[in-house]
Amino acid sequence: MSAQVVTSELRRWIVSQAAAGHSPEAVLDAMKASGWEEAVALEALETTMRDHLLQLNGGGEAAHEPAKPVPGRHLSAATPQISAGDRDVKVLMSLNQPRIVVFGNLLSADECEEIIALARARLSRSETVETRTGASEVNEARTSEGMFFQPAEFPVCARLEARIAALLGWPLENGEGLQVLRYRPGAEYKPHYDYFDPAEPGTPTILERGGQRVGSLVCYLNTPAEGGATVFPDAGLDVAPVQGNAVFFSYDRPHPSTRSLHGGAPVIAGEKWVATKWMREGRFE
Length: 285
Ligand code: PD2
Ligand code: ZN
What we know:
Number of domains: 2
Strand content: 25-35%
CATH architecture of the largest domain: Sandwich
CATH superfamily of the largest domain: q2cbj1_9rhob like domain
Largest sheet: 9 strands, antiparallel
Radius of gyration: 21 Å
Number of strands: 17
Order of helices and strands: HHHEEEHEEEEHEEHEEEEEEEE
Number of helices: 6
Bound molecules: pyridine-2,4-dicarboxylic acid, zinc ion
Distance between the termini: 46 Å
Helix content: 25-40%
């Protein structure tokens, strides 16, 4: 073990160097040049900047909670084609901070059409779980229409759920039932976080069943004529909705420092249909 001790003075110096615009590599080089062992310097740099960013993002209790395990840790663009049980799925893009993975070929066109047909008759104006009360409420930020399937309600749902569990390496029982949304022209879903806000009084009740959400998978059931990207403002990333593709993102704590803010941009022409799968940290039963 190293005898070198990382002092609060060193941490303040690291933050001042970053604030002055020096790159992490330049700060690391400067530390090594003044005698710091590389491993100690790297650890000090990473932990100091991470804590600093958490504070900039509002701090709060949740920012300091230990990170939760999340689905899909093993996925990377280094393995661009992976077997997800009954289907080979493409990894089109993978980002680590925030954690976002874009998949191709997750569903066949027939599966997409079947899910749309099953959902269509049950659509109503979308509601979100209202964390102030724990109840479901119509939400002005979401102008789509939606419905929930029960887990494994139809064979096509059960097949997709098993495929998602295999793809993300996450227990089937931890998944909520699929939610289908339809956006007509002008409809959107303003940027939001999918985890339940720990500061809201209704959250403890929601968490009794399965704990926090730790990951989301938005599956595109059709290709809208124009608009409707899934946007990640903190990553500067817009994901185009393409039938059969999907975007996955995870959040290891219920906090904005995960940079998992995301929204559905307004649909300009045509309709947009998605099926969203949310994954909990525990069994959702
Ligand atoms: O439809 C989307 O692109 C979208 C965007 C943001 C879906 C969700 N959130 C969601 O279902 O949570
Ligand atoms: Zn969302």
